[in-house]
Design goal:
The structure is a homodimer of 368-residue chains. Chain A has 368 residues and is an alpha/beta fold. In chain A, 42% of the residues lie in helices and 17% in strands. In chain A, the strands form three sheets. The first copy, chain A, has a seven-stranded mixed β-sheet with strand order 2-10-9-8-5-3-4, with helices on both faces. A four-stranded mixed β-sheet of chain A has the order 1-12-13-11. In chain A, strands 6-7 form a two-stranded antiparallel ribbon. Chain A is globular and about 60 Å long.
């Protein structure tokens, strides 16, 4: 699989550079989204997505950012006033929680230090203390800290021990980090097109279990555009409820073909090895990583900067002088770290350029 | 302006064939949506969109179908239980009304026969009879019937006489049919990328007046992804609240450049003349149009079929034998008519092919 060579070395956690075939697929002539031809493509994309989610649950494609599908995970299972537990390990976990509050859901937050993963024992105690909780929100891979939470263990507690609905933000994990939707009994799993699915941004995907459908039948959150009941009705006809982003579907179709022809397991293994290499190279420069190795993400690495350095200065310098675009720290981590995205295959030359650029930029920022 | 030549002659009311430069723009390398470069592009697109909307109101771009932005028009101005008037002249007017009901808004419907436009006197009487109405929903151009409602006169009643909030579905009119947002005092105007903006589907645009912001401050509909308050905060930084469909923004940027370099007025004039020509050619085949000339849409023409003909048979034949894709009748009009979309410049050869195809197909369907 080859990747689009950018003028910039785009190393943010998303959007990620896409394979050139994926980019080019966007230029296919537009077709009628109520045609047989479209239905054939949509069904094929959904079949392939299920092989990425590792699920037999329903899978739907939304014309929206990942955030739109996160909202769909809530409005299709919960009602205003329902009590839920939001497990927060960083900026995006907090945002998922804030979204639930904006939707008038009664949110109990379980906060962990940003940079740490979920402590399973504390999660268990919290669920014991709050028996009225209906659902648990978890961020699988916390993009702001470069931490992957142990979703398998979390699920064992949430599902097997307590039988709660499990809603998973997998925006930066699906396709990039191991995620077994059915084996781990995840009721709702949400991802965006622009990360592990190697597609330009603008589409989101969501898997929805039988238990989630039971919750759907009972819930009364006002909704229309995100109403998965409408999606299900139209999907039976091989259609989307509303005019879809057809050119992005062409791109997603091509990206899924590439990923599955390489094999999901080897695609994820490759990214794991690549992440090990990037982390070790960054450490060799004398920089510390935010996450412990045990829970370090294979899709994004958060790198701490020396105390007297503003990480944003480093980010600016990398961009201006070296054409390398990395992510800034978010929320309370702003200025304290930068984030290197490495979803998909990163060409060796780009990794080398990154290390050289980082080394030079760091020296210059420190001596400034 | 040249247009993408499809293998199919795509003559549905949307998505519309896009100029090749617009299609190609999607392949530009993806960039960081939190960068200066992105901010520059976003601000430029919004400036140009204001020249299409003819407004100084806020304009935002949503990563969603037009339907998502229609939902935004409701959740940002209304609360559950608020009473509104939904003016329905066809399938899409009904859908806008149904959406409001799904959002638990108290909807008073004003129904007109499908194929007719809004009767201003009846609208006035309805507003007199229901003084507790907060907002009025209007479909500017009803895609299902090929009727353009007289928005200027409607606004005069709704705004000048009654001072209600005016929410306009302009999905199939903006860029294609005259629409003066500020002069006609439209509070909220919604459109999709895939029609008069000559861009692939996946983006929606919305204009939002000062009065709409006043309603926003008071309303309490649960929302997050569509919360225009978040959009406003991020727009001040030249950003979108959530990861946007970057490649579609590239396309929209290019399409706006093409439309404005031709001039909005002459672009719309051209479509008006083209619509006249298409209507007269269809009539020469002995077919009747659903809409009266007085209110006939310049973006889509609904054509009635002889009584003993199933319009869907004609649509199938046109597609299979002639490679011409037209729209079917929707809702209660299913099987009774077909719809020819003619947004943007339709190449003369395609119009000729359409007329020849229609003539042959009609003969064959009748003699079947």
């Amino acid at each position: 699989m080859k990747y689009q060579r950018e003028q910039q070395n785009l190393r943010i956690p998303g959007p990620v550079p896409c394979p050139p075939e994926v980019i080019d697929a966007q230029t296919r002539p537009l077709i009628d989204h109520r045609s047989e031809e479209f239905a054939h493509m949509l069904k094929s994309i959904v079949r392939r997505l299920k092989r990425i989610f590792l699920t037999e649950n329903d899978v739907f494609i939304l014309t929206s950012s990942g955030t739109g599908a996160l909202e769909a995970s809530l409005v299709n299972t919960l009602s205003p006033g329902d009590k839920i537990l939001a497990v927060v390990t960083g900026f995006f976990g907090q945002r998922y929680s804030d979204m639930a509050k904006a939707l008038l859901i009664d949110v109990q937050e379980l906060q962990f230090e940003w940079g740490r993963d979920v402590d399973i024992e504390i999660l268990r105690k919290t669920l014991v203390a709050h028996p009225d909780i209906k659902a648990v929100l978890v961020t699988h891979n916390e993009t702001s800290t470069g931490v992957t939470n142990d979703l398998e263990s979390i699920s064992r507690v949430v599902k097997k021990e307590f039988g709660k609905l499990l809603l998973v933000d997998a925006v930066s994990s699906l396709g990039s980090v191991e995620l077994k939707t059915d084996e781990w009994e995840c009721d709702v799993v949400v991802a965006g097109s622009q990360k592990g699915l190697l597609t330009p941004p603008g589409l989101a995907v969501i898997s929805f279990s039988e238990s989630a459908w039971c919750a759907y039948e009972k819930c009364c959150m006002p909704k229309y555009y995100n109403d998965l009941g409408l999606f299900r009705t139209f999907m039976a006809l091989g259609q989307t409820a509303f005019t879809p982003a057809i050119s992005l579907l062409y791109a997603l179709d091509k990206a899924l073909e590439l990923i599955l022809s390489e094999g999901l397991v080897s695609f994820i293994d490759m990214q794991r090895e690549q992440a090990f290499m990037i982390r070790s190279k960054v450490r060799l420069l004398g920089m510390e990583l935010l996450a412990e190795d045990r829970c370090a993400s294979h899709s994004v690495t958060a790198v701490k900067v020396p105390k007297n350095v503003d990480a944003d200065d480093l980010v600016d310098l990398l961009r201006e002088e070296f054409g390398i675009v990395v992510g800034r720290g978010q929320g309370r981590l702003k200025g304290k770290l930068f984030r290197v995205g490495h979803i998909g295959k990163v060409p060796e030359q780009e990794i080398q350029d990154l290390v050289v650029g980082l080394s030079s930029a760091l020296t210059r920022v420190i001596s400034k």
